[in-house]
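Hey, quick one: can you model this chain's 3D structure?
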Amino acid sequence: MVQFDVNISILLKEVPFLERFRRAAELGFGAVELWWPGDEQADAVVRQVREHGLQVALMNFDAGDMAAGERGFLNDPAQQERFREHVPRALDLARALGCPRLNALVGNRLAGVGEEEQRTLVYENLVWAADRAARAGVEIVVESLNSFENPRYPLTTTADVLDLLDRVNRPNVRYQYDIYHMQRMEGNILATLRKHLARIGHIQVADSPGRHEPGTGELHYRHILEELERLDYRLFVGLEYNPRTTSEESFAWLPAEKKGSNSVSRLRLL
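Sure thing. Here's the predicted structure for all 270 residues.
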């Protein structure tokens, strides 16, 4: 059974961040995902999750100022202390939230630092973080992004991430497959799901082009989600898109009881 969660860092922006947990629950969602909320909001996030009885399907490690284009800093020799001080705090928050996985964005390419040095730092930091995450019972996922909107991000295809995962070689490090990004870069969504589902730890959706809700672009989401059910995918599908109108209206394609555990046959998609 395909399960959906809502990314409250990109959706439900009609209300302030800490009110989005309540709003997600009011709209029928049983699960959320979020980018790193900041150390100063960590305790408040835990309170909101518990108060509204939500699951947290995914949380990002601190990736810097996402709105300004930052995409992590695992590759930055000047930020190593920052990352390694952050990881224990992120794991503590994940445990407090009951969050089973953390997304590690590896960082934009840096001018003045050799690419091999950057690749080595990403590898070393992922191994270091994965070993600590394993002791906490937490999985790490690594995402590929499209190069049109993220021109300096080094992981832009499925093969890029899987090659890195092969090198890291840790069972608790898997692929975060964002269908929107990979439709823009390589297509072949169903073939990728069929071939690599066992290596995927989380899936995110948005339609392409536009990065709006499913049903607004070229992707046949009913077929994709039916295939996920056929493949017996049992993890979450995260809604990570920019709503074309309002967040609430953008959920109209989900069945009335929606969000949490749903029957794909009832999705309002052509």
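One thing worth noting: The two ends are 20 Å apart (CA to CA).
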